[in-house]
Write a structure and sequence with these properties.
single chain, about 475 residues, alpha/beta, TIM Barrel, M1 Pyruvate Kinase, Domain 3, Pyruvate Kinase, Chain: A, domain 1, 3 domains, 17 helices
Length: about 475
């Protein structure tokens, strides 16, 4: 069972109940819905289907919603899809007209004001590139650099321009309220620039009497990189959005940025996720490229928590095949990791506190005795996360009577979350733990498991015991 988690985006080509069920069975840990494209009714149907599948199959799948963020988009078009031809000119205005292949409109006059002659403009997730050749007070005249297609409300990205747009729009406030109503587990916050953006969302959640949902900041621009330490402090984790970073900075800088952010985030014991073009070629093909496989391997070796499949599963024609391919790649790479060396590397400069010392000992013991699983009881999820941060060689079965806590662990490295009843004493807790792991994993007589947790569950908020058991 793979430790690096897989997040799959649901879109028009993957929203069918049977497809979602097959994707979950094939290794998807978290279902993602990007509210920049999805309608509320669509998102509700997907979430209810995932919950139904979880009940039927006795599995736990997390749900992630992306906010739109202060993202720039063009206005509507005369047709659902408009083709733009390389070498031709197109005008950008702010008058709210319906666009076509000769002219498009943007809802912000600031785009016209702050863009200069010579600037590049990217449309529809950077599939179309324009360059400004002339401008006046009302219009940008641009040359089309490559043939491509745009759709209504396509994204528009201008790397060299800086716009002061409010982070939380009315629509995103509705997305957050909807997320709470549907008991979503993760919010991916788009276009975060500084810690105050995350704090604005946190304040809204507190006002709505729910600050338990986990906040993942999408790192998409140079401003976020400059403020990364502060952003990490107020976030549960980050999503490294390589496509947007490549637009905002030189593309050759992105690999080093990914490695630096991954290392920093793990040092801060936060979640780190990689997105954009993970298996892009599989949108239209049933096999990946060698470069994509190497890219995935690199991320796994760097110990990221999860990888996001975006358009590959949202609009790609092979969503289930893509998931199965990803699963095989992860499995192969993880089977060749030296976890003892990895544990030593993680703890080399660490000043370990009591609960973390037990988490470290749990992982060290599991690695040394060749345990088939670590089982941890948790009420808040902190025990499981502490153990996950040490990257054990075996899966971590996290048991809790709290369903919200269980779903909130679906994205963490190596954790298999499972709901159990409340234990009255440590003997009962051990028995519940063994019953849970036997349901989830194929264990044989003589197999060893390491049990760790806090007891009593309801009154102790740190890890305070560890035990090694042999399966009878």
């Amino acid at each position: 069972m793979n430790k690096t988690k897989m997040i799959s985006t649901i879109g028009p080509n993957s929203s069918d109940y049977a497809i979602i069920k097959n994707m979950i069975a094939s290794g998807v840990d978290v279902i993602r819905i990007n509210m920049a494209y999805a309608k509320f009714d669509f998102a509700r149907d997907v979430i209810l289907n995932v919950r139904k599948i979880n009940n039927e199959e006795n599995v736990t799948t997390g749900i992630m919603l992306d906010t739109v963020g202060p993202e720039l988009r063009i206005c509507g078009l005369e047709k659902p899809v408009i083709s733009l031809e390389r070498g031709k000119l197109i005008r950008i205005v702010s008058t709210g007209i319906i666009g076509n292949s000769d002219i498009i409109s943007v809802p912000y006059k600031e785009i016209i004001d702050h863009t200069k002659v010579g600037d590049f403009i990217y449309l529809n997730n950077a599939t179309v590139k324009l360059q400004v050749t002339a401008k006046n007070d009302d219009t940008l005249l641009c040359q089309i650099h490559n043939t491509g297609k745009i759709i209504s409300e396509s994204t528009i990205n201008i790397p060299n321009a800086d716009f002061n747009i409010k982070f939380l729009s009315k629509y995103d406030e509705e997305v957050i309220k909807f997320a709470l109503q549907m008991q979503v587990d993760y919010l991916a916050l788009s276009n975060v620039r500084e810690e105050s953006d995350v704090l604005d969302v946190n304040d809204l959640l507190i006002n709505l009497n729910d600050n338990n949902i986990q906040l993942l900041s999408k790192i998409e621009n140079r401003h976020a990189l400059d403020q990364i330490e502060k952003i990490l402090k107020v976030s549960d984790g980050i999503i490294i959005s390589r496509g947007d970073l490549a637009l905002d900075m030189n593309i050759e800088k992105v690999p080093n940025i990914q490695k630096t952010l991954t290392k920093l985030t793990k040092e801060k014991e936060k979640i780190v996720i990689i997105s954009t073009d993970i298996l892009a070629s599989m949108e239209n093909n049933d096999t990946p490229t060698r470069a994509e496989v190497s890219d995935i391997a690199n991320a796994i070796i760097d110990n990221v928590d999860a990888l996001i499949l975006g358009s590959e599963t949202a609009i790609g024609i092979y969503p289930v095949t893509t998931v199965k391919t990803m699963n095989k790649i992860i499995d192969e790479i993880e089977n060749n990791i030296n976890y003892n060396n990895l544990l030593h590397e993680i703890t080399r400069n660490e000043n370990i506190q009591i609960s973390k010392a037990i988490a470290y000992s749990t992982v060290d013991s599991a690695n040394r005795v060749g345990a088939k699983a670590i089982i941890c009881s948790t009420m808040s999820g902190s025990t499981a996360r502490d153990i996950s941060n040490y990257r054990p060689s075996c899966p971590v079965v996290a048991i809790s009577p709290n369903s919200k806590v269980v779903r909130g662990l679906t994205i963490n490295y190596g954790i298999i979350p499972h709901i159990v009843g409340m234990a009255e004493n440590t003997d009962e807790l051990v028995e519940l733990s063994l019953q849970a792991v036997k349901k989830i994993l194929k264990l044989e007589a003589g197999d060893k498991v390491v049990i760790a947790g806090s007891f009593p569950l309801e009154s102790v908020n740190y890890t305070n015991f560890m035990k090694i058991e042999e399966i009878k």
